[in-house]
Specification:
Blueprint: H1 2-9, H2 12-28, H3 39-58, H4 78-83, H5 85-96, H6 100-111, H7 117-124, H8 128-149, H9 157-172, E1 188-195, E2 201-203, H10 206-217, E3 221-229, E4 233-241, E5 253-261, E6 264-272
Parallel strand pairs: 1-6
Antiparallel strand pairs: 1-2, 3-4, 4-5, 5-6
Helix pairs in contact: 1-2, 1-3, 2-3, 2-8, 5-8, 6-8, 7-8
Organism: Microbispora corallina
Domain RNA polymerase sigma factor 70 region 4 type: 90-142
Subunit structure: Interacts transiently with the RNA polymerase catalytic core formed by RpoA, RpoB, RpoC and RpoZ (2 alpha, 1 beta, 1 beta' and 1 omega subunit) to form the RNA polymerase holoenzyme that can initiate transcription.
C-alpha cells in the first residue's frame, strides 16, 4: 500500500497519511470484500482513490471557491458505512475510545461531507494545523484500537442512529407548525445554544423555529441526507430544496453539529455548504 501511495504522491509523509486513511476505510468496508484472494488489489484501489483526493488538494483553488471542500469529495459513501450494522457498531466503539477532540475531528472527516481540513477547522473552532495533528493522532489510535474491538460485544449504534434520524426528520422535514417546541422538551435543553453559520449565537429554540417558518413560507424545504449518531454527539446533514423561481434562496446543503450532555442537547452549530462557483460566459465577437 505504501509503495503504491509513494509512487503516486512522491512524498513520504503524504503517503503515510493516505495509507492510514485507506486502512481505516478498509476496516469500515470489510463486508465489501467477498473474495479474500482479492484483498491486495482491493486495498491498492482504496489507496489509489485516496491518492487522487490528496493530489486534488494540491491544485490551486479556482477563484470564487472559498475553500477546497468541492475538491475533497471522498469516493467512499459514509452512508454506506453507517448502514452496515456489522461494522458500524464496532467502529463506534473504537471512536468512543478517543478523546472528544480527536473523536469530533474523526467523525467529521470519515462520516460526513464536511471532510476538508478547512471545514473541520471551522466546525471545531481550531486552526487547520491542529486539525491535521488531531486526525493524525486519531488515525494512529484507531489503527491500534479497531482490530481489538472487532470480536467484542458492542452497543447498538444502529438503533441510536435510527432514533436520531427520526428526530432530524421531525425537525427538518415537516411543516413548522406541526413541530411545536414542546415536542423537543425531553431531548433539547430550553437553554440550548444555537450557533449560526456566520457566528451569531442565540439561546433557546425560538431562533430555529423562526428560521424554519421563514424558509417554509418562502417555499424552501429540507431533505435529510445523513445522520451520524454517538452517545454525546450527533451530526445531521440536509439538502435545501429551493423553489424553482428562487433557486439560490438557500445554500446547497447544511451540516448540524449537535452536542449533548446527560441525554439533552446543549448546543447546536450550523454550517452551510459553499455555493458552487458561477461560470460566466465571455462575450466573443466575431
Amino acid at each position: 500500500m505504501y509503495a503504491v501511495a509513494y509512487r503516486i504522491l512522491g512524498n513520504g509523509a503524504d503517503a503515510e497519511d493516505v495509507c492510514q486513511d485507506a486502512a481505516i476505510t478498509a476496516m469500515a468496508r470489510l463486508t465489501d470484500l467477498r473474495d479474500p484472494a482479492a484483498a491486495g488489489p482491493w486495498l491498492k484501489a482504496i489507496v489509489r482513490n485516496n491518492c487522487i483526493v490528496r493530489l486534488r488538494t494540491r491544485l490551486p483553488v479556482p477563484v470564487g471557491l472559498p475553500d477546497d471542500s468541492a475538491l475533497m469529495a471522498c469516493a467512499d459513501d459514509p452512508a454506506e458505512i453507517i448502514e452496515r450494522h456489522a461494522t458500524r457498531d464496532w467502529i463506534w466503539d473504537g471512536l468512543m475510545g478517543l478523546t472528544p477532540a480527536l473523536r469530533d475531528a474523526a467523525i467529521l472527516r470519515y462520516f460526513t461531507r464536511m471532510n476538508s481540513y478547512q471545514e473541520i477547522a471551522r466546525a471545531c473552532g481550531v486552526p487547520v494545523g491542529t486539525v491535521r495533528s488531531r486526525l493524525s493522532e486519531a488515525r494512529r489510535r484507531l489503527a491500534e484500537a479497531l482490530p481489538e474491538t472487532v470480536a467484542g460485544r458492542h452497543r447498538d449504534v444502529g438503533a441510536l442512529t435510527a432514533e436520531r434520524r427520526e428526530e432530524a426528520i421531525a425537525l427538518l422535514s415537516s411543516v413548522p407548525s406541526a413541530t411545536p417546541q414542546a415536542f423537543f422538551g425531553g431531548r433539547w435543553s430550553p437553554y440550548a445554544e444555537i450557533i449560526w453559520p456566520k457566528g451569531d449565537r442565540r439561546i433557546g429554540l425560538s431562533s430555529l423555529f423562526e428560521a424554519f417558518a421563514s424558509d417554509y413560507a418562502d417555499g424552501v424545504r429540507y431533505r435529510v441526507t445523513n445522520v451520524v449518531a454517538g452517545p454525546d454527539i450527533t451530526v445531521w446533514e440536509n439538502q435545501f430544496v429551493n423553489p424553482p423561481e428562487d433557486p439560490d434562496h438557500c445554500p446547497p446543503a447544511a451540516t448540524w453539529l449537535l452536542r449533548e450532555s446527560e441525554g439533552r442537547i446543549q448546543s447546536v452549530r450550523l454550517f452551510h455548504a459553499p455555493r458552487p462557483a458561477r461560470v460566466c460566459d465571455s462575450d466573443h465577437s466575431g
